Amino acid sequence: MIKIAPESWDFGDQAVGVVTAPKTATLTNAGPTILKITDIVTSGIDFAQTNTCGQSLAPGATCSIQITFKPAITGPRIATLQILDSEPGSPQSVVLAGTGK
Length: 101
What we know:
The protein has strands at residues 2-5, 8-14, 23-29, 35-42, 47-51, 56-57, 62-69, 75-85, 92-100. By secondary structure, it is an all-beta fold. It has a single domain (2-83), classed as Immunoglobulin-like. The model has no long low-confidence stretch (mean pLDDT 95).
């Protein structure tokens, strides 16, 4: 069982072309077996991520995903952070939102 906290991020208003400070999501392997991680990606061009997760996560272990928002245009921007893994229902998703100003 995989847990992601928080389940969504709203970065609020951000100047177009300027990157925000990173926000951290925590991925937890709450299951009894090793979680295999294939990839962690963001959709769209406005959000980016870096992480400490590697290719697997032991039972009870956590890793961090740093997410930044850099709006390309003005207006509402919505994307997802997706974790492709060995859990049923993969990929796991986190909703990302922000507004370019």
